[in-house]
Specification:
352 residues; alpha/beta; 10 helices
Length: 352
């Protein structure tokens, strides 16, 4: 008995295929014999011949497709293995002799998103320790987010600037640099924006809903059990509590004051003495210059070319490992190929 389960499976499968072929052959033989005994006409013989040819053609086609999909599977698996072992040797950090480092701050700033403190700080450290990077540009396009994540990034920029005093940091706001995103920008040596960029929103917000009256109308009773007098404070299904609301407002005010203090430290005397600056309002890039929120108008390319005097930009933003990118692309291509063979329309699943 063979120790290889695959061989055993093939041995069990072979007799089945032989039995199926023998059964098909015996049926055809009986059909031909009956035709001879009944004295079939020429037309009937042609019909039998056509049927037999169709069966043989269908068998050949099935074998071809089986071989094709087996080969495709093996090619796909070998490609994955090749990419896995070769991907580690792909150079992803080849940098020119002198360049300007650029780091993207995109989307909501939170621990679970692309613009998390871990991602941005890792990029900052890589850019600062690279001796060929003459300066660092933070290209910002974000409505803000977590004050904690923003604070981490702000503090790290200040720490790195103290370690590398000859490497300046420029913040360039594209579409929007508001709230937590401006918090980060305030740590830079200089801030640039477009004339139509949205800048500011130096404030703190927290929101909820109240469903108490609605629950009374539809006859729903709230049953909430807690240990601790204020454990469920600001619960949207419980009546308002003025003492808890006052406490929460103090928390927001404290966070806001921390935000304002950091912006003032970062911008210094460039800020105008205007209380509206810290009211949560946003301004265009041109208005922001007048208020001291922004130093000048300009894009990332402009800052690199005209201010830093090193036009070459190198992106230090975190990226997916090359072999993972290739694997993902292979998977998508493979799925599309199978869908095309099966006649499945994939366009209906695309986002529009």
């Amino acid at each position: 008995m063979s120790d290889n389960p695959w061989n055993e499976s093939e041995q069990n499968e072979a007799p089945k295929q032989q039995e199926a072929s023998a059964a098909t052959g015996s049926k055809l033989e009986r059909a031909v014999e009956n035709a001879k005994q009944d004295g079939a006409s020429k037309k009937e013989w042609k019909l039998i011949e056509k049927t037999l040819n169709g069966l043989f053609t269908e068998q050949r086609r099935a074998r071809r497709w089986g071989i094709f999909f087996k080969l495709l599977t093996f090619v796909y698996l070998f490609a994955l293995l090749g990419v896995f072992f070769a991907g580690k040797d792909i150079a992803t950090d080849v940098k020119p002799q002198v360049h300007t480092a650029i780091i993207e701050v995109k989307g909501v700033i939170s621990s679970d998103d692309e613009a998390s403190a871990d991602n941005i700080i890792w990029s900052l450290r890589e850019a600062f320790k690279e001796s060929n990077a003459k300066a660092v540009i933070l290209r910002i396009n974000s409505p803000g987010g977590s004050p904690v994540q923003s604070g981490y990034i702000y503090d790290e920029i200040k720490r790195l600037r103290a370690i590398y005093p000859d490497k300046p940091v420029y913040a360039v706001i594209t579409d929007i640099g508001a709230s937590g995103a401006y918090y980060i920008a305030a740590a830079a040596d200089y801030i640039y924006a477009d004339k139509a960029s949205l800048v500011g929103s130096i404030g703190v917000v927290a929101g909820s809903f109240g469903f108490v009256d609605l629950m009374e109308k539809i006859g729903v009773e709230r049953r909430l059990y807690t240990a601790g007098e204020h454990k469920a404070f600001l619960d949207p299904y419980s009546p308002r509590n003025s003492g808890e609301e006052e406490f929460w407002q103090n928390v927001l005010n404290t966070t806001h004051n921390q935000f304002v203090d950091q912006v003032r430290k970062g911008r210094g005397d460039r800020l105008k003495d205007d209380p509206k600056l810290y009211s949560g309002l946003v301004w265009s890039g041109e208005q922001a210059i007048e208020l001291g929120l922004v130093d000048a108008l300009g894009s990332s390319s402009y800052v690199a070319r005209e201010v830093i005097k090193v036009e070459k930009l190198v992106d230090y933003s975190p990226k997916q490992e090359p072999w993972k990118q290739i694997v993902d692309e292979l998977g998508v291509s493979f799925a599309k190929g199978i869908a095309a063979e099966l006649g499945v329309n994939t366009k209906s699943h695309e986002l529009r």
